[in-house]
Write a structure and sequence with these properties.
- The protein is mainly alpha-helical and 205 residues long.
- The protein has a domain of 107 residues.
- It contains 4 helices and 2 strands.
- It has a two-stranded antiparallel sheet with strand order 1-2.
- A hairpin with a 2-residue loop joins β1 and β2.
- α1 crosses α2.
- The longest helix has 114 residues.
- The termini are far apart.
Length: 205
């Protein structure tokens, strides 16, 4: 028997051995069949069988048994070869699938790590923005509280000042009534021209 690789419609990846009989094995099978037939026929005539026929029958039976045994051993060996070949192919396919799964798992892990890093950066950025917004809100609230306190203090002072000052009283730091209306300024008189005597003019000359 011999091993022959065959491929089916699925391509070269799916190949398996098959057991075929060659010419020598077909000849051995025919010899075994003929020997068995002759031995059975000679056994029916054991009374008139001579020594030569007996020896030839024993020889044929021995050959038939030997060839049959050899064929069985070859068959078992071929079956073992088939199992070994199938196991080898399965191991290769299994190893290739495991390698593909490991590569896919590695790529998925790398992608998940990258996505996790991006999410962490986004979270950190959002946390910084939140802290900045909270700081601005706190400062604005403090300023508003200070302004409210100042307004309340001024309103309280104005309210107290309004109670202390009676109605109709002039406000503090105001001028008296006599100084509010000013007097009309005096009018200037006609201009006076001074004339010098002629004697004084001659002396000046």
């Amino acid at each position: 028997m011999r091993l022959q690789r065959i491929s089916d419609d699925f391509g070269d990846d799916v190949m398996g051995p098959t057991v075929l009989l060659n010419s020598f094995e077909m000849f051995a099978l025919i010899i075994c069949t003929v020997s068995s037939t002759i031995a059975v026929q000679n056994c029916n005539y054991t009374a008139s069988m001579s020594d030569t026929n007996f020896l030839s029958t024993i020889f044929l039976i021995t050959c038939a048994v030997g060839i049959f045994t050899w064929g069985m051993v070859r068959g078992l060996t071929a079956r073992q070869d088939i199992e070994d070949y199938t196991t080898m192919r399965l191991d290769k396919v299994h190893a290739r699938e495991i390698a593909d799964i490991k590569e896919s798992n590695k790529n998925d892990i790398a992608r998940f790590v990258k996505e996790n890093a991006d999410l962490r950066r986004s979270f950190d950025r959002a946390a910084v923005d939140y802290e900045w917004a909270m700081g601005m809100y706190t400062d604005q609230r403090i300023r508003n509280q200070e302004l409210d306190a100042r307004v309340a203090y001024l309103e309280q002072r104005l309210h107290e000042f309004g109670k202390m000052t009676p109605t109709g009283q002039a406000p503090l730091h105001s001028a008296p009534a006599s100084q509010v209306s000013f007097a009309v300024p005096p009018r200037r008189g006609p201009s006076v021209t001074f004339a010098f005597p002629e004697s004084m003019d001659g002396e000046r000359a």
